[in-house]
Amino acid sequence: MQCEYCGRALKPDDWQCPGCGAPVEKNKKTSKEQERTSEEKHVHQETTIEINPQKGNTVYRSSVGAWLSRADYGGFLRRTIALWIDLIVVGFIFAVIDSDELYMLLYCIYEIIGTSYIFKGTTIGRKAMNIRVVNSHYEPLTLGQAVIRLVCKGISTISMGIGFLMIIFTKKKQSLHDRLCETYVIRIRR
Fold this sequence. Notes:
It contains eight helices and four strands, in the order ααββαααβαααβ. By secondary structure, it is mainly alpha-helical. The protein folds into two domains: about 1-70, no CATH class; about 75-185, no CATH class. The strands form two sheets. It has a two-stranded antiparallel sheet. The protein has a two-stranded antiparallel ribbon with strand order 3-4. About 25% of the residues are buried.
């Protein structure tokens, strides 16, 4: 089996492409599924219909067919470490800059480019922590969505950090800015 986006070879148990991070569609019939009786298929279909993220279940289905559980979202500690790595990287790169305003501007540009489809939702820190930012369709953000997410991240910051602490208490591990922008931080399986 190959990834339909980048063409990389996939293992049968992959739920996400190790190359581009796209969710793997599991709709292709395997030999075991072909052996199931029509009654078993009917039960399987009922089970998938009952799984509903709006009712608080812990399993979610993306629009491209990948199943994600609570463990597949990037948690608070993982995201915090990724942020600190990014701040350190930007600090080393722009160490010669004496202006705090210019440093913040360069960090914002770095964050927008890293969050968008240009780098598939990963910055250096996120790549090190194996996480990626995606939209509600589990696809990389556009530049516009990345800008809006960064502005909303400011709201999480000025709320005395409460917006970031929401990651701990929400089922899909979303911060305030993720909820406002309908974005998710998912784990990348290697």
